[in-house]
Design a protein that fits this description.
This protein is mainly alpha-helical. It has two domains: 2-129, no CATH class; 135-266, no CATH class. 74% of the residues lie in helices and 1% in strands. The chain contains twelve helices and two strands. α4 packs antiparallel against α5 (92-111) and α11 runs antiparallel to α12. It is elongated. The two termini are 36 Å apart.
């Protein structure tokens, strides 16, 4: 009994220490989620991770060996070093990675390798809440997607014989498709995780999120072009937002269909 109380007190101290060590990074993440449309899905990721961890509660409760691992202390030490360097260099990206790493190290230290193994996926999934591609790499991909989408949509609009007598359209940064790709990749990994199939099919399922997102974004651009050619402005306001949500929903349904096409089964 005393041992359990001591572990709870030590765990509480650890949580408070984490808040003090990473609170600036939490503020930065919250700001990115609120202000960067590419990462508006960020707040959902921790909730999904917690839910997956909760689904494993029965399996975890049956694990007997809960002795801590010395490897966990090593991981915590490495994470703290990364955090100190991140604070000194003012790099929030590596600070976020450090936080995820230290979470795994704490679980490994307090509860042992078997429980840490069970919780490896939901902890690793937290990487999707972080701007993991980095701003420069992300901008480069976004620009490539804009050019690709603009080229395809322009050719399709030309083939359809659509004329922009009342104006023109421009593929802006938020409409490059990178937002849909990031969101669908996160969803694709969840789909694959809850799918009973071979590793190859799971990888194909995750990768399929990329062309589905690009296709959905292309449809949105074409819809905007057709409406603009008829004098209807859908580049701003509620209709523009709604079209984005509908396109994402269509891409999501495409992901469901593709999983069915691969003859994958959902896990119970």
């Amino acid at each position: 009994m005393t041992k359990n109380v001591n572990k709870i007190i030590l765990l509480a101290i650890t949580i408070v220490s984490l808040i003090l060590l990473y609170y600036k990074n939490f503020i930065w993440l919250g700001s990115k989620w609120l202000n960067d449309p590419n990462y508006s899905h960020g707040p959902l990721i921790p909730l999904i991770s917690i839910y997956i961890g909760w689904l494993k509660k029965d399996t975890i409760s049956k694990i007997k060996g809960r002795d801590g691992s010395i490897l966990g202390i090593t991981i915590i030490f490495i994470a703290i070093i990364i955090q100190i360097i991140s604070i000194r260099a003012q790099v929030n990206l590596t600070s976020s990675y450090s936080f995820i790493l230290i979470i795994y190290g704490i679980i490994l230290t307090y509860y042992g390798k078997d429980i840490a193994k069970e919780l490896l996926f939901p902890i690793a999934y937290l990487f999707f809440m972080v701007p993991f591609l980095g701003i420069f790499f992300l901008n480069r991909i976004s620009n490539m997607l804009k050019l690709f989408s603009a080229y395809l949509s322009a050719n399709i609009i030309y083939l359809l014989g659509i004329n922009f007598s009342t104006g023109s359209i421009e593929v802006a940064d938020p409409c490059s498709g990178i937002r849909s790709i990031l969101s669908l990749l996160a969803l694709g990994i969840i789909f694959a995780y809850f799918t009973e199939s071979s590793a190859f099919k799971k990888i194909v399922l995750v990768i399929s999120a990329i062309p589905l997102a690009v296709l959905g974004n292309l449809v949105r651009i074409l819809f905007t072009g057709i409406m603009t050619s008829n004098g209807i402005n859908v580049t701003k306001g509620f209709i523009h937002t709604l079209s984005g949500l509908l396109v994402f929903l269509v891409a999501l349904l495409g992901l469901v269909w593709f999983r069915h096409l691969l003859k994958c089964k959902k896990t119970e």
